[in-house]
Design goal:
- The chain contains 8 helices and 10 strands.
- It is of the alpha+beta class.
- The strands form 2 sheets. Strands 1-5-2-4-3-6 form a 6-stranded mixed beta barrel. Strands 8-9-7-10 form a 4-stranded antiparallel sheet, with helices on one face.
- A hairpin with a 2-residue loop joins strand 8 and strand 9.
- The longest helix has 22 residues.
- It has 3 domains: 80 residues; 96 residues, Barwin-like endoglucanases (Beta Barrel), CATH 2.40.40; 68 residues, Sporulation related repeat (Alpha-Beta Plaits, 2-Layer Sandwich), CATH 3.30.70.
- The chain starts with a helix and ends with a strand.
- It holds the Pfam family DPBB_1.
- Lytic transglycosylase with a strong preference for naked glycan strands that lack stem peptides.
- GO terms for molecular function: lytic endotransglycosylase activity; peptidoglycan binding.
- Belongs to the RlpA family.
- This is Probable endolytic peptidoglycan transglycosylase RlpA.
Length: 274
């Protein structure tokens, strides 16, 4: 009886785990299992192809008959799914860089600073503010270290907008654009390369309120189905914000915001990475 309960628990874990593998496109890696010496009744490829049918998994002899190397390899694959934070020195992206200067000099950046075209800063669509990256010009090998303090660029194919000074350091003022590689130096916040809020795409939400007391935020959130409370820091103090939804585009978020306003709930759309 105890053995059956253990198998049920572990099989339930496998169902959830292989759902993750399928989500990340890693299920094909299970072909590695074919190179291992297995018990005749232990065929992970066959058994996991039936992942949608709990009866087949529950009644299989997978757990009892699989040898240790199979389970060890499974653990490695699952661990790779959860690895989302790149280390300093990791290449974050490759793409096209541009630069901006005279028309924006002295104006406010997305993080509230005053833009100075003579500082080594840059705009990126999703990297956390104050992240420092090394920008390598792939044409000439020149590089410059910049700090992210603004959002952009929004032209198709471009991944970073450099200040005038930063562009000059890698000799791309005249060309205006250049193919570059972004290498992580450091970041004050975790950087996600997979899952919600990752740097590969912008994500938006609707902020409906901000409170000093968690209890007040939760009380308001209970009035709006599917809303959530998220804590944050503002000038060294903790605040509790009420958010609604996750969106791939600001237009989708604004559509739901208008619907919420008609129900008496005011708010605004914000980028999740900000």
């Amino acid at each position: 009886m105890k053995s059956q309960q253990t198998n049920l628990i572990f099989n339930s874990y496998l169902l959830r785990s292989f759902g993750l593998l399928r989500s990340f496109g890693l299920l094909r890696k299970l072909s590695l299992f074919r190179s291992l010496s297995l018990h005749p009744d232990c065929n992970p490829i066959r058994n996991f192809s039936c992942i949608g049918n709990f009866k087949l998994i529950r009644n299989s002899s997978l757990i009892r008959d699989c040898n240790l190397p199979v389970l060890m390899l499974l653990s490695v694959l699952l661990a790779s799914c959860g690895t989302t934070s790149p280390r300093p020195g990791s290449v974050l992206e490759q793409g096209e860089a541009s630069w901006y200067g005279p028309g924006f000099h002295g104006k406010q950046t997305a993080n509230g600073e005053t833009y100075d075209q003579n500082e080594l800063t840059a705009a990126h669509r999703t990297l956390p503010f104050n992240t420092r990256v090394r920008v390598v010009n792939m044409t000439n090998g020149e590089h410059v270290d910049v700090r992210i303090n603004d959002r952009g660029p929004y032209a198709r194919g471009r991944i970073i907008d450099l200040s005038k000074e930063a562009a000059d350091r890698i000799d791309m003022l005249d060309s205006g654009i250049a193919p570059v590689r972004l290498i992580l130096i450091d970041s004050e916040k975790p950087i996600r390369t997979r899952g919600p809020g990752n740097i590969r795409r912008e994500e938006f939400t609707i902020q409906l309120g901000s409170y000093n007391r968690k209890e007040d935020a939760e009380a308001y959130a209970r009035q709006i189905r599917s809303s959530r409370v998220v804590s944050g820091e503002v000038d060294g103090s903790t605040v509790y914000r009420v958010y609604y939804g996750r969106y791939r585009s600001s237009s989708d978020a604004n559509r739901d915001l208008n619907r919420l306003k008609r129900r008496g709930h005011d708010g605004f759309v914000r980028q999740l990475q900000n």
